[in-house]
Write a structure and sequence with these properties.
Layout (H helix, E strand, L loop, with lengths): L9 E6 L3 E7 L10 E4 L6 H15 L4 E6 L3 E2 L2 E2 L11 E2 H9 L3 E5 H7 L7 E7 L3 E7 L2 E3 L8 E3 L2 E2 H5 L1 H7 L1 H19 L3 E5 L14 E3 L4 H4 L9 H4 L1
């Protein structure tokens, strides 16, 4: 009985600017394997990323379906922006990966997937991820508004939020000034969305040194993988 409860198993993949992570999830979203990781290639065209995902999948064992978080705008499985490489623009990622792995694939923006693995599902919830760039996702009572791109909105001194809060800015500004910019950004986001809760994830969340109020908290980066199960919540298999 316990074995049956694991099916269908989901290979969850989180593609980041510095690393590609994966693990296998049970039907209830609990991890069945340890997380594995490979460095994101530089450059990172689609064929190189697909090859790494294929390699990671072989290391993790059997699965029946795949969820992928991608760092950019995704619509109907097609990647529309190209932070990793220009060849990602208009790339039908889900179909190519499904053909490679021989399993059905669903792809979403990585911050959206992180949010799906993080939120409580009550009220207005904002998720931001701090890493190579800035990711964001917004939810109302658990409902996702997909592909929210706060990163590219104007912020300070003619620069965007991502230009002030991405990893290059952290390296140039230093942690103190980067945290000051983050504090102002959070104030702006709260004024804009009136959120009930805000969650901060991503690899650079560990550098956040602000005195955060109770409704703003740091979240685990593993949520970027755990949220992959949510991409299949409407599947026929899971309803059985």
């Amino acid at each position: 009985m316990a074995e049956q409860s694991t099916f269908p198993r989901t290979l969850a993949v989180d593609i980041g600017g510095s690393g590609i992570k994966a693990l296998v999830l049970a039907a209830d979203g609990s991890p069945l394997t340890e997380r594995v990781r490979e460095a994101t290639p530089r450059p990172a065209p689609p064929e190189a990323v697909v090859a790494i995902i294929q390699k990671l999948s072989k290391a993790l064992g059997p699965f029946e379906r795949v969820s992928v978080g991608f760092p950019g705008v995704v619509r109907n499985g097609r990647t529309l922006t190209a932070h990793l490489h220009p060849d990602w623009i208009g790339f039908q990622f889900d179909a190519v990966l499904a053909q490679t792995l021989g399993k059905p694939v669903r792809v979403a923006n990585d911050a959206d997937v992180q949010g799906l693995g993080t939120i409580a599902g009550r009220g207005v919830e904002l998720v931001i991820t701090l890493g190579t760039g800035l990711g964001s996702s917004l939810f109302a009572d658990g409902r996702l508004f997909p592909n929210l791109q706060l990163a590219h909105q104007p912020f300070l001194e003619g620069k965007t939020y991502e230009q002030h809060l991405g990893n290059p800015a952290l390296q140039v500004k230093g942690k103190k000034k980067w945290n000051q910019a983050l504090a102002l950004a959070l104030t702006n986001f709260e004024a804009l969305f009136g959120f009930d809760a805000c969650y901060i994830g991503g690899g650079n969340a560990l550098y956040v040194k602000l005195d955060l109020p109770p409704h703003i908290q740091i979240s685990s980066n593993i949520n970027g993988l755990l949220g992959g199960i949510a991409l299949w919540r409407d599947s026929v298999d899971e309803a059985r």
